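Q: Two folds, back to back.
A: First:
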Amino acid sequence: MARVPASRYLAAMSEADPIIPVPKQRKPDWIRVKAPIGTAFSETKNLMRRLNLATVCEEAACPNIGECWTKKHATVMILGDTCTRACAFCNVKTGMPRAVDPLEPEHVAVAAAELGLSHIVITSVDRDDLPDGGASQFVKVINALRRNTPDTTIEILTPDFRNKAQAAVEAIVEARPDVYNHNLETVPRLYPTIRPGARYYASLRLLESVKRHDPTIFTKSGIMTGLGEQRLEVHQVMDDMRSADIDFLTMGQYLQPTPRHAKVEEFVSPQAFKAYGAIARAKGFLLVAASPLTRSSYHAGDDFEKMRAAREAKLGKAATAA
């Protein structure tokens, strides 16, 4: 991996303002969103109910659901709506999941066709109860989409498949999604309290292994801010991601979904997100999305096109230089 010129990194560092704390009693104006309304929103919701599909938009209480569903963009959450983990930030319910729905892959493909999606994001709950962690269901969904909506590009956001065979990830890579996303979520120091069922370096190795098996697949990862992380810790996570050859970094503000979840330690200002973005770009990411409302699948289709164009431009420059 090419080294980033020191002058470029220092220029980005000079833009970095300190994270600006805001009183935790109220959300700042920049994190407020409009309530979901409109016919398209209702149609998207009804389609998901008819096909018996869960969405991370609903289950994780995403603040962007109104905007995305009005545009008929929904992130499908496969393998049910019940997770075997209990992460302190996540609103998805925890418990004993139901059996895997064999019709789910075809239902996802029907949803993609009816919504007219040119790009679809597929995520899942953690399924530690399954021998492969649910990897085979990701493969079936990818294959169903390729059969039924061959022009739709596919982005997956998988769990870490912890303690599962490496073959689980390899099987998904062989199905060739266009983007493989797995979120690190936070800095290593906070894993014991925020993501206790996961391991930071295991997640990094997963993403690194995707690139090792198929360098043409875009890799993507994201972290939340406002959980008590320090700025230099975030910079180190960026460095770790680049060492794993991750293409795309997303950063957004953590919002406490219920009183029983981890508290918001601070609201990070849009100016601080802009500074983080400048530093990340200086470190060599192909694409960076950093703002209070950024989420993994927010504007994913547009970002995919930007990422593809950025890689083509990068390859073109390399060919010219050669």
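A: Second:
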Amino acid sequence: MRDKPGHGRTLSYYDFGRTTVHCAQVDKRFSYCAYVPRSYDEDGTDRYRLFVSVHGTMRDIGDHRDAFIGFAERHQVIILAPLFPAGITAPGELSSYKMMRAGTLHYDAILLSMVDEMAQRYRLDCGRFGLFGFSGGGHFAHRFLYLHPERLSTVSIGAPGIVTLLDADHDFWVGVRDFETVFAKPLDIDAIRRVEVQMVIGGDDTDTWEIAITPDSPMWMPGATLAGANRQDRMKSLKASLETHGIAVRHDVVPGVAHRRDGLMPAIEDFLDRAYGK
């Protein structure tokens, strides 16, 4: 093993290809791994684009990174796979990252700090980056789109269980009436329109056991059932909501696939190959 001079610090064998897992320096409760294409040369000058793949509730970050290795090699993109562990806000808690904020904890800021760390380590052009999330990561991806569209070039939203509509008649999380109050930042619809958006779901993804919202649910609020009963209904509602605001959406429904990310990958890669091949 031989250390190579890095961009901002020394890199080692474990910083190339499938990297080791690094803790986030801004908050060491969080961590991430990456994939760096074989062509990356510390003595080179080429800058690489960044793509972020956000896990679902299972938090299988290795799989979320490895699924995009072929894409990374085709388009010379570095993959970042963040880890937002369970139990951060309370023992057994699974979902706080999906809503972007939990009290004073800003999950969006944690991700952006990871991006900054990567930019110190590698030659990255990451003013704008691509984002994917499946299931719980799909929650994160579309809400991050609302909050930081200026940082995104593309977003692929994979089968979120609960969606936030661009609805000015309902408060967050159902809608965005109080968005600026919640996030201390206004919605920028024009910036969202500049992001290439895909929504993707399996045609057999119809189970509701995990995503049903009833009046006794901790998430219950006025309008909680507005988007529909299952993931199919909610994806259609989200698409309509975006399109009402002039935001173009590619909506892929993959036949014969249930709630599985691997079955969606051909549609996701087709979207990304078209976007990154321009």
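Q: And?
A: The domain at 13-276 is CATH 3.40.50.1820 (Rossmann fold).
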